[in-house]
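Researcher: Next sequence.
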Amino acid sequence: MSPSFKFIVGLTGGIGSGKSAAAARFEQAHGIHVVDADVKSRVVVEPGRPALHAIVDRFGDVVLLGDGSLNRAALRERVFQYPDERRWLEQLLHPLIRDEIMADLAAAHSPYALLVSPLLVESGQYQMTQRVVVVDVPEAVQIARTVARDDVPEEQVRAILQAQARREERLRHADDVISNDQDLAALHAQVDALHQRYLKLASGART
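Model: Next structure:
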């Protein structure tokens, strides 16, 4: 459960949907405390952390870079080829990531906090929130944006999409939807409107 005195909005969307752009608007234009699950997922596998030792024991030094840090691309390629390995990794990392998220959310001082996570639905992290907003785009747009952004093969992007919740499943959990199939100004306008709604909801939750 989320800290009882915090109003937490979960923000999610598939790869290439524009989650980062939406989160940046909440943070930079409105001063909202943002907790990024992707950032926390990197923290828990930093050199010296127990999780990194467990991953190396499982996959070998091939998942390490020369400086001893995690080679995320090599690990991603491995786990998306073998679903059992992906499930093992999720069982290892999800509880650790959750602990990091909870500590950061508890430190928030803005009227509400924003938990940004691509796996908000799949990992059950949505249960830590009072409201879920989904950044939504058609799958074809996700693929085109991610291929262009990350310079990766389309097949790899499709594999990642298969590992994430289906678009319909995310939308089923959504209290609010940001449609990001237009320009940045349109995205910002939707975020700004939601911010005003969340201020009122957070204020009501505190009374």
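Model: The CA atoms of residues 4 and 103 lie 13 Å apart. The mean pLDDT is 90.
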